[in-house]
Amino acid sequence: MNTHHLSEEALQQAAMEQPEAGSVREAHLEGCSSCRAAVAEYRAIFGALKTMEKPVFDFDVAQLVLEQLPQPQPAVRRFPWPAVLTGAAAVMGFAVPLLVLGRFLSSLFSGIPAMMLALIGVTAAGILLFLCRETVLNYREKMRLLNFY
Amino acid sequence: MNHSVEQKFTDQQLVERALGGHQPAAAQIVRQTEGLVAQIVFKMIPLADDRKDIVQDVYLKAFRHLAGFRFNAKLSTWIGRITYNTCLHYLEKKRLVFLPERPADGDQEDDGLDLLLQSQQPLHQNPIEQQLSGRERTAILGNAIRKLSPPVYQTLITLYHQEELSYAEIAEITSLPEGTVKNYLFRARNQLKKNLLSIYNREAL
Ligand SMILES: [Zn+2]
Fold first, then answer.
1. pTM score of the predicted model
2. Do A48 and B189 touch (CB under 8 A)?
3. Contact B200, B113 (CB under 8 A)
4. Which residue in chain A has the smallest CA separation from B57?
5. How far apart are CA B113 and CA B147, in angstroms?
6. Within chain A, which residues score under 70 in pLDDT?
7. pLDDT confidence of B130, banded at 50, 70, 90?
8. Quick check: is A80 in a domain?
């Protein structure tokens, strides 16, 4: 004979879940009519809740909301000023010393074949472009996160 | 607008279309989520007159921040969360209490006593089952739910048992830890049963 009835929590679980064959809970329920009755009560409540009438608004929500939404506009992205300014600063950072040291550099590169020079130039440009793209994407992502919350 | 030809889109498709200014997609987002929004708003906002403004506020916020929706959760859960927070904010502003510090430790035995007056049900073998199968079921259950205290129990019971959301989804909507949601729901069910039983017991006298 069972001396301990199921806890309130176990009764609720039993009412919400499929019976687990062979579990301690099921074994107790089989032999205890008062716990069975308590489970049946919970089951009745949960069943009634599920089929209870749901509240509805007495106005057309979609219409109300759509009227207030801004009219669709061609996707205008805010001009990425910070990225452009950073880019410009970077170019200046290169260009100014280049101009100043022009003479010195031209003598430095004079010994290197034109083909090699072009190759270095293209590689450097490629890397620079990639970095710029990363920066812009990063910036957009951060702006999106800032807009949220 | 013809509702019957509404296609089934994924959350992502809907959001992308709505962001592109596609109005039917925006309308569909509203229609797919307004049931959940209604559940939360009706449970949390006692004044019917204020509900319209709140619903409008919820969706305008949702659409304003739609680009920031990360698809980590279901769109409906996200909008549910906005709804819950908007309602809380409203209650704070109106100085209406929704979340007392802590739920009462022992659930009061006489919580549902005054419900008795509203119930006209005859006696039955299995009181709850019989009462709840009657025509007044929605009214009786509704009253028993409204008696749940603290009031957050009312919302939790509704979201779990009527909307059939998971503990995790409810935690997401209410910003409560999942363990707290489970614990509150356990107490809320217990209280609800007592409320309904007390209706019956008073009648049996
Ligand atoms: Zn027992």
1. 0.68
2. no
3. no
4. A65
5. 10
6. 1-3, 72-78, 105, 108-109, 111, 141-149
7. low
8. no
Query: Quick check: is A131 in a domain?
Result: yes
> How many angstroms separate the CA atoms of B112 and B198, rounded?
6
What is the per-residue burial (b if ≥16 Cβ within 10 Å, else e) of B21-57? eeebbbbbbbebbbebbbbbbbbbbeeeeebeebbbb
- B177: CB partners within 8 A, 6+ apart: B171
Domain that holds residue A118: 96-148
- Quote the ligand 1 centre to B187 CA distance (angstroms): 20
Judge whether B52 is closer than 8 Å to chain A, CB to CB: yes
Tell me how far apart the alpha carbons of residues B199 and B205 are, in angstroms, rounded to a whole number: 11
Q: How far is the alpha carbon of B129 from chain A, nearest alpha carbon, in Å?
A: 5
Binary contact (A45, B189; C-beta < 8 A): yes
pLDDT tens track for B40-81: 999 999 899 999 999 999 999 999 999 999 899 999 999 999
Residue B114, pLDDT score: 33
What are the structural domains, with CATH classification, of chain B?
A: 3-93 (1.10.1740.10), 108-204 (1.10.10.10)
* Predicted complex ipTM: 0.78
Q: How far is the CA of A41 from the centre of ligand 1 (A)?
A: 14
Q: Cβ of B138 and A49 within 8 Å?
A: no
Among candidates B26, B34, B42 on the partner chain, residue whose Cβ is nearest the Cβ of A69: B26
Tell me how many domains chain A contains.
2
Domain contains A60 = no
Tell me the pLDDT tens digit for each residue of A58-82.
Answer: 999 999 999 988 776 555 566 777 7
Q: Identify whether A132 is part of a domain.
A: yes
